[in-house]
């Protein structure tokens, strides 16, 4: 009985260990090399946000630079850098959209009256 | 009991009247009033720089700093824009291939008219700047338009400004809702923060004139366009109003609009209008 119990506990331990190892791998997944598909997805998202900023007539030069850097890195096959730059571009574009939206009324605070 | 109902009714009527009045005053505050704007705009700068004569504002940073002012007075003896002035005079007089000249496109032959630009064209429903009018003149006479940000355009406007020196800026807003909307759009553009640095035009030229931004001394917004075009030492050359607007935008990390975009035209309209009465001093020189 005890031996069986021991053996059962060993299996449980092994399962827990495998789970931990599995989780560790899952956690380290972003550190794995990004693929071209990852870049394309990140770039499309960033480009869409920048297009929206353009419709609000408020694009930032830094967003454009980050998009260009993403393209350049992808062309050189460095998809990790390409994805990082695309994500930076997306964050910048979103900030410019926020700025344009909040300024629709807030500009009046600065007006000389 | 019988007295309570009339009292209640009166209270409700009073409350409604207060709400209606509040609504009216809110609407009044939002209704564009260029005359009041210009008065408040000029008062703001005069209060802030009480020792400055009103006509000195058109000298930009040179009016804000004594040392710079002395340097400028010396510079004016051999002004750096002189070559552009000569070139502009020559270009202005040189006939197009069809024999006509710029003078044929403008009132008073284009001499002494800088203070009336930009104006609102009621036929087109848009603001027409001097730079735009010059290119339209070229195109109407079969010539290719000039770059809005390069030397030839600056030379032409330098000459036209020079012939108008001392004349008070005289921008009119006709009784046309589209003109008022153009003015209001220009005002909105002027005060709206943009670019990654989160600056509006007013951040530098209303909140900080006379202050340094790196090595530069910021010019006041009042009269800032009266000196256009300008020779800038930083550019080692002449710059048009278009060049000034686009570089301002990129300096705050915003993607500039195309030169002579409607927003820039409206901005020029607003900024020129609030400087009405101040003399034309262009072409100017800036550090």
Q: How is this structure best described in words?
A:
With 113 residues, chain A is mainly α. Chain A has four helices and no strands. In chain A, helix 2 packs antiparallel against helix 3 (61-75). The termini of chain A are far apart. Helix content of chain B is 45%, strand content 7%. Chain B has ten helices and seven strands. Chain B has helices spanning 4-30, 34-48, 66-75, 82-93, 130-140, 151-162, 177-191, 201-205, 241-251, 262-273, and strands at residues 119-121, 126-128, 212-213, 216-217, 230-232, 237-239, 284-286. Residues 18-27 of chain B have low confidence and may be disordered. Chains A and B meet through helix 3 and helix 4 of A and helix 2 and helix 7 of B.
Number of helices of chain B: 10
The gross shape of chain B turns out to be globular
Order of helices and strands of chain B: HHHHEEHHHHEEEEHHE
Q: Calculate the mean pLDDT score of chain A and round it.
A: 85
Task: Supply the CATH superfamily name of chain B.
Answer: Cytochrome c-like domain
Average pLDDT taken over every residue of chain B? 90
Low-confidence blocks of residues of chain A: 1-8
Number of helices of chain A: 4
- Specify the CATH architecture of chain B: Orthogonal Bundle
Q: Quick one: overall form of chain A? A: elongated
What is Rg of chain A? 24 Å
Please state roughly what percent of the residues of chain A sit in beta strands, choosing from under 5%, 5-15%, 15-25%, 25-35%, 35-45% or over 45%: under 5%
Count of extended strands of chain B: 7
Broad CATH class of chain B: Mainly Alpha
Number of domains of chain A: 2
Would you tell me the structural class of the helices and strands of chain B?
mainly alpha
What share of the residues of chain B does DSSP label as strand, in percent? 5-15%
User: Order of strands across the widest beta sheet of chain B?
Assistant: 6-5-7
Q: Give the quaternary arrangement of the chains.
A: heterodimer
Q: Major sheet of chain A: size, sense and barrel closure?
A: none
